[in-house]
Amino acid sequence: MSDFNAPRLFVDDDLPGSITFDARQTNYLRNVMRLKPGDSIIVFNGRDGEYRATIDELGKKAGEAVASEKLRAQTRRPSLWYAFAPLKQARLDYMVEKAAEMGAGRLVPVLTQHGQVRRINRERLTANIVEACEQCGILSVPDIVEPVPLADFLGSLDGRSLVVADEALAGEEGDAIATIRAAGAPLAVLVGPEGGFSAEERALFTPRASRVSLGPRVLRADTAAVALLALVEAAFPSK
Ligand code: SAH
């Protein structure tokens, strides 16, 4: 297990070796965490595993450290795809952060008829994802792809089973965990837009998806994300 007390940072540099911090990281280490040269932190780069690093220098805008002691070996990205209709900024930020925390390996924005948002800022969302990984001890940073229309998404599943949280099933009886388990891994899961799925879209995904209810209440999409991913974790506990 990781040492969750030490600050943990995602870095670009190869590990082990010397690390340079950008302005954001330097500000975090110096002004937020109040660290000094000689203090140790944890670093990972999504490729070489996780290391303990010792800070050498911490200036106003840049800093350096050396990573030498390996703490954990690199893991592969989880096979789980989390697909979602993009939301407006604050809820979207929340949703991608939670999807990373809950074990998605790839995030797929899906364009739907009732979706209100058609473009995403991948750079900003990636920064949210990286931060979630730093906080939660995740070694392999999920990727986020460009938005795809629903029909293209359905054609791109690459052998994955698809589970859709369908608000039309809200309040219906059924064992969602058993349904997800029966669908089988590797999985892609899909949460629709705030406006819900259209009848046409439901007709499109129903033949090739397992649909689940998330309970009797119709949830906001960002809540549905966490609820659905918790069911996936229950069906297929992460190792
Ligand atoms: N405006 C729609 C609700 C959309 S909720 C309506 O009133 O019907 C946004 C998304 O969250 C849905 O597309 C679905 O993927 C998911 N969701 C919310 N509540 C759900 C529930 N009880 N069961 C299954 N999916 C749900």
**Cα gyration radius (Å):** 20 Å
How many domains would you count in the coordinates?
Answer: 2
Percent range for helical residues?
25-40%
Query: What is the N-to-C succession of helices and strands?
Result: EEHEEEEHEHEEHEHEHEH
Tell me the distance between the termini. 12 Å
Reading off the top of the CATH hierarchy, the class of the largest domain is best stated as Alpha Beta
Q: What's the main sheet like? A: 7 strands, parallel
User: The CATH topology of the largest domain is what?
Assistant: Alpha/beta knot
What does this structure look like?
This protein has seven helices and twelve strands. It has 239 residues and is of the alpha/beta class. It folds into two domains: 65 residues, Ribosomal Protein L25, Chain P (Beta Barrel); 155 residues, Alpha/beta knot (3-Layer(aba) Sandwich). The strands form two sheets. Strands 6, 7, 8, 9, 10, 11 and 12 form a seven-stranded parallel beta sheet that branches. Strands 1-3-4-5-2 form a five-stranded mixed beta sheet. The longest helix is centred in the middle third of the chain and has 15 residues. The chain is elongated and about 60 Å long. Bound molecules: S-adenosyl-L-homocysteine (SAH).
